[in-house]
Amino acid sequence: MTARMGPTVDERVAATVRADVRATRPYVVAHADGLIKLDAMENPYTLPAELRTRIGAAVIDTPLNRYPDGGAEATHAAIADAMRLPEGAALVLGNGSDELIQILSLLVATPGATILSAEPSFVMYRRSADVAQVRYVGVPLGVDFSLDAGAMLAAIERERPALTWLAYPNNPTGNLYDEAAIEAVIAAAPGLVVIDEAYQPFAERSFLPRVMEFPNVVVLRTLSKLGLAGLRLGYAVGNPAWIAEIEKLRPPYNINVLTQVVAPIVLREFGLLESQAAAIRGERARLAGALAAIPGTTVFHTAANFVLVRVPNANAWFTQLRGAGILVKNLDGYHPLTTHCLRITVGTPSENNALLAALAPFA
Ligand code: PMP
Fold it and tell me: Mind listing the domains of the chain with CATH numbers?
């Protein structure tokens, strides 16, 4: 036996690790093995066999003993080509847009800084502010989930936020905010406004073409919802003056070598991803219609690849679906505005049929 010297490991952890970190619980991702996964806004379609064969051949020849290209130039070029970036705009890549959300929060982390977001919205805006030890202020959306321009402008005046988050469309509500309300927020905000367009492929609306019009806007995107969630590739687009600062906080080699090999191959077939997104939009309309026909439901208008629905008893619905092997997101208790709400990702036609069949007891 080793003699015990000095403080225990628990005492050392308590004395060393930030108190707020020790008090936080880790972000839990639901186990989904063997389940129909309609909880995480993934594209349910895989890639065609021929394309997967091409990817396989490229991966075989990728040297794993070497670091990736630190600048990820081929991936940069592939994104710039596929997404038609506006003239003069620059681009920075992240290991998922999650990483860029973290970096953007660190970018403004000066003493006394505030980060603002409409709420309910993507949970990582608050979590990343907490990690960066920046004060976070949430401004409630209206009851119909519209951006409350009056409340936002008052909060901007009061808080003078260094960073304001707007998800367009919003998660978990699925709606697009009014463009004039967004413009008013941009005009009033003293700091950076990040328009997070993770769900843009399903909305067909975007601030990206206009990003260079504004001195204080960066548009955030991801390939995750388009069908490449496993690659972990997000990007931010904006004036080179903003992007250059973000680039300084990007860890070297944050885009791994396999992502750098695969992303350009898939992005050359961008039309395929777009047609999958179109199929999802079609299924979204069918699913929303069928859910709306169930007594007692309110289906909120969505421009994303998921449907937010308020049901008579969210826990009963969740349990019923889980029993049928279907995982959705239960947002009851997440925010006062999402009481008795479930967020259902649009799946394949047969997955959506399985979901609707499992809801028969409520119909
Ligand atoms: N922004 C929003 C609004 C999201 O909903 C998500 C994923 N749920 C992300 C960003 C992060 O996506 P990723 O890290 O996969 O790019």
Answer: 29-48+271-362 (3.90.1150.10), 65-269 (3.40.640.10)
